[in-house]
Specification:
The protein has 163 residues and is α+β, with helices and mostly antiparallel strands. It has six helices and four strands; from the N terminus they run αααααβββαβ. The chain has helices at 6-17, 31-47, 52-58, 63-76, 88-106, 139-147; strands spanning 115-123, 128-130, 133-136, 157-162. Strands 1, 2, 3 and 4 form a four-stranded antiparallel beta sheet that branches. β1 (115-123) and β2 (128-130) form a beta hairpin. α2 crosses α4. The relative contact order is 0.13.
């Protein structure tokens, strides 16, 4: 199966989780780094024929650690018996990463492509939800682009989605 180079896949999930690829091989247990590794492993497990050992070697981890994290990835993205996602936030970030990777692949193997992103946030000053559209090459660049003119706190930001 054709997929993007590993460094592009890593950078997409790192941007979405707000971390750096440098931390992926470190021993840190910081949640955003662990979840980034987990998303990358989950994506590669579904889209390649890499073994658990070779996946673990990407981040200096052993086979059992990789298996544990892939199992946690599948659990987080699965649906409860009542029809609700187990981890909505994680699943949404993973889905956005997969969509970004798919878009990059279809548009030319990772070249910078600009598209419209809609940022939905709650403005407490006006007691209203605002949804401006920003042209950027990634979700986090869209937020940065908008924040050059209007600051948005993490509590105010509700959703960012590609149009």
């Amino acid at each position: 199966m054709d997929i993007l180079p590993l460094d592009i896949i890593q950078s997409v999930f790192c941007k979405i989780n707000g971390t750096s690829p440098v931390y992926l091989t470190s021993k840190t247990r910081e949640r955003r780094v662990v979840e980034t590794r987990r998303m990358i492993w989950g994506y590669l497990r579904q889209n390649t024929d890499m073994t658990l050992t070779s996946l673990g070697n990407l981040f200096n981890r052993d086979h059992p650690s990789t298996l544990h994290n892939i199992t946690k990835h599948y659990a987080a993205t699965s649906i409860t018996p009542t029809g609700v996602l187990y981890d909505i936030d994680y699943t949404e970030r993973y889905r956005l990463g997969v969509l970004e990777i798919k878009h990059l692949f279809e548009s030319g193997q990772g070249e910078k492509v600009y598209r419209d992103y809609m940022l939905t946030y709650y403005n407490p000053a006006t007691d209203a939800y605002i949804a401006p559209v920003v042209k950027a090459s990634s979700l986090f660049e869209a937020i940065k682009e908008y924040e050059q003119y209007n600051a948005i706190t993490d509590e105010e930001l509700v959703l960012v989605k590609a149009l």
